[in-house]
Structure formats: structure tokens, C-alpha cells
Design goal:
By secondary structure, this protein is of the alpha/beta class. The chain has helices at residues 17-31, 44-47, 102-112, 123-134, 159-180, 195-203, 218-230, 267-276, 299-318, 337-340, 352-359; strands at residues 4-9, 35-38, 58-60, 87-90, 96-99, 116-121, 139-143, 183-188, 208-210, 236-241, 253-255, 263-264, 283-287, 323-328, 331-336.
Length: 368
């Protein structure tokens, strides 16, 4: 009898998810003889086996993953509101509250005869996987997030594409900023990590980069803008991570719904409003938002996702559960999931990338 495993994508979508699914399915079926069950919309398909969605749960065949390597998104669907340990339901009065349905997930996995699951997700998905491991449901993790904030891997797939999209957008905004002598503030994703802002800002020659790890003051940014004006540069580009916060302040939260992480938005607008009180300037705010998540993955993310999917299928075949695949140097390795979630990866204020940016005159808002 063929061994059966499940595969799912959790959290926010990002370029490269389909590359992982394709590799895991092809290697799992053709090399190891697995039957692979595609779980719809993160764990929603195991919380309720009758879960209704455009595609629904299904046993995957190799033909199901043909021609998906270059596609963004995920053919399985995903969700960042399907944590079984904090699942949102409505009571008889229609009021929403969180409840634990993890036992239901385990029961349904057993009903399907699944030996274990390959879960493709970020830090939240890995934490959920770790909790299921403690309850006896075997898991293999595959790290994905455009935020690049998982400390156990040198890089996550999705990050390279997101940086490229942000860089191209900033390059385009520079043209209109220079044409109109404007200050352009560009808000990028990243949550509590400033990697997208730092990489995209450095790659596009931004004049200021504001990241969550370096609380900012407005005065150094205003002085930079005024200094550029005095030198004949009538425009400036300020890249703002969505999690950036002023010194002594907090990140800008749009809303916090039950069962979901806080939605961050408004960081760049807050900077613009503050600068308008310090100087006279024509300022515009552009929020890139989810455009950074979509589109065809870069070659790097296609290859990394493919390598991760292959490695995950091999781990399942070997029975090496409770591990996450990770990139270390040039090699894909397996590490315990508990290690993967131990410490997030943040931008160190004294790291080489920040030092390079400062040497080129980039302002981070903490200058004296």
C-alpha cells in the first residue's frame, strides 16, 4: 500500500509556492511512490473535510502540477486565519470567538490515512507545526515568506521576487519624483523585519530607509531633504518598512481581527505627516502592498522553491519528520522545527548592509 502524505500552504501567498508544490509532488510520486493529498486553504481543508472552495481538497497527480513553476500564488489556496489552535467561529448569537479545533485536524488526517504533512509557510505556520508535533501529528516544514525573517535559513523563497518588485517600483517613482521635485515615500512590506526595505532601498539608491529595527526621528530625515535641495537635488526617495516606528512609538496598525496577525499600514503616511510639519515640500505616499506578493517568481525563487520541495519529499520518504528544510550557504539542509522558530531574523543596526548604506549617505532616522 502506498504511503500517503498531505501538503498545504499557509499564511500569506508569495512567489515560489507552486515551485515547492511541483517539486514535492513530482519527487514524492515519481521517486518515492507516495500518494499526495493537497489540502485547500492552509489547514481549513483538514479542519473540515467538506470545506468548500474553488478547488477543494484533492489527491494530486503529476499532471496537476504541470506548467505551474512560473505561476505566482498557490494552486492549493492559502489563509492566514486558519490556526486550528485559535480558530474563529461564530456562536449562536453570531458573535465571533476563538476555539481550539486541533483534535479535529488530527482526526481528519487519520481518517484520510495521512502519515504526516508537508507544511509550507512562515514563522506562524512553523509554530503551528511545532504544536501539532507535540500532539503526535508528524510535520515537515518548508520556509516561505517575503519578509525573510526566519532565523534558521539564510533566505526564504519569495523574498528575492518581492525585493525585485519593490526595487522596480522605486525606480519608476524616482522618475516622477525628479520630474516634479517631489519627496516620494514608498511603503513596503516586511512586518517586524526590515529586509525588504533595506535591500530594495539600497538597490534603488534611496536617500532614506526606515526599518523596524532602527526607530527613527523625523529631524534627520528633514535635514537630509533640505541638504539635498541645497545641493541642487530637488527630490528625495524615502523607503519605509510597514513596521517602521518612531523613537519611543509603536508600529502603525490598521486593524487587528480575531484569529489573525495585526494588519500594518500607515507607516509612510505617518512619516509624511510628520515631515510636513518640519519643512515645505511636495510629498507623495505610495503603498506597494500586496503587489509585492504576486507575479511570476524570480529565477532564484523558482530554483530555491524547487530545491526545498525536493528536500521535503526526501525527508518524508526517509521518515525524518519534525524537521524544516533550510538554506545554509549553498546547501539545503534539514533542521529541527523547534530550532527554526527559536529566534527570528532581524536587521542588525550594525550589520554590513546598513554600514554600506550609511557610508553612501543613506539616512535611517537615528542620526545625531
Amino acid at each position: 500500500m502506498a504511503r500517503k502524505i498531505g501538503i498545504l500552504t499557509g499564511g500569506g501567498d508569495c512567489p515560489g509556492l507552486n515551485a515547492v508544490i511541483r517539486a514535492a509532488v513530482k519527487v514524492g510520486i515519481e521517486r518515492h511512490g507516495f500518494e499526495i493529498f493537497g489540502i485547500e486553504d492552509a489547514l481549513n481543508g483538514l479542519i473540515d473535510l467538506d470545506y468548500q472552495s474553488p478547488d477543494g481538497n484533492r489527491w494530486l497527480r503529476t499532471r496537476d502540477v504541470h506548467q505551474i513553476l512560473a505561476r505566482g500564488g498557490t494552486i492549493l489556496g492559502t489563509s492566514n486565519r486558519s490556526d486550528p489552535f485559535r480558530f474563529v467561529v461564530k456562536d449562536a448569537a453570531g458573535k465571533k470567538h476563538e476555539t481550539d479545533v486541533s483534535d479535529q485536524v488530527i482526526a481528519n488526517a487519520k481518517k484520510l490515512g495521512l502519515e504526516g504533512l508537508i507544511t509550507i509557510g512562515g514563522d506562524g505556520s512553523m509554530r503551528i507545526a511545532h504544536r501539532f508535533l507535540a500532539k503526535g501529528l508528524p510535520m515537515i516544514g518548508v520556509p516561505k515568506t517575503i519578509d525573510n525573517d526566519l532565523g534558521a535559513t539564510d533566505q526564504t523563497f519569495g523574498f528575492d521576487t518581492a525585493v525585485g518588485i519593490a526595487m522596480e517600483a522605486i525606480d519608476r517613482l524616482r522618475d516622477t519624483a525628479e520630474s516634479h521635485d517631489r519627496v516620494m515615500l514608498v511603503e513596503v512590506m516586511g512586518r517586524d523585519a526590515g529586509w525588504i526595505a533595506l535591500h530594495a532601498g539600497l538597490a534603488s539608491g534611496a536617500d532614506a530607509i526606515l526599518v523596524p529595527e532602527i526607530p527613527y526621528r523625523l529631524e534627520p530625515i528633514a535635514k537630509m531633504i533640505e541638504r539635498r535641495r541645497s545641493q541642487g537635488q530637488k527630490y528625495s526617495i524615502v523607503v519605509v518598512s510597514e513596521g517602521a516606528k518612531p523613537a519611543g512609538g509603536e508600529a502603525s496598525v490598521l486593524e487587528h481581527l480575531p484569529g489573525a496577525m495585526p494588519r500594518l499600514q500607515g507607516a509612510a503616511q505617518r512619516v509624511s505627516d510628520g515631515l510636513s510639519r518640519l519643512l515645505e515640500a511636495d510629498m507623495r505616499v505610495t503603498v506597494l502592498g500586496h503587489v509585492q506578493r504576486g507575479g511570476s517568481p524570480s529565477s532564484f525563487d523558482r530554483i530555491l522553491g524547487t530545491r526545498f520541495g525536493h528536500a521535503a519529499a526526501d525527508l518524508a520518504a526517509a521518515g525524518t519528520w519534525d524537521h524544516m528544510v533550510a538554506l545554509r550557504g549553498d546547501d539545503v539542509v534539514a533542521i529541527p522545527i523547534v530550532e527554526a522558530i527559536r529566534e527570528p531574523k532581524r536587521v542588525a543596526p550594525d550589520c554590513q548592509l546598513v554600514a554600506t548604506a550609511r557610508a553612501l549617505g543613506v539616512v535611517f532616522g537615528d542620526e545625531s
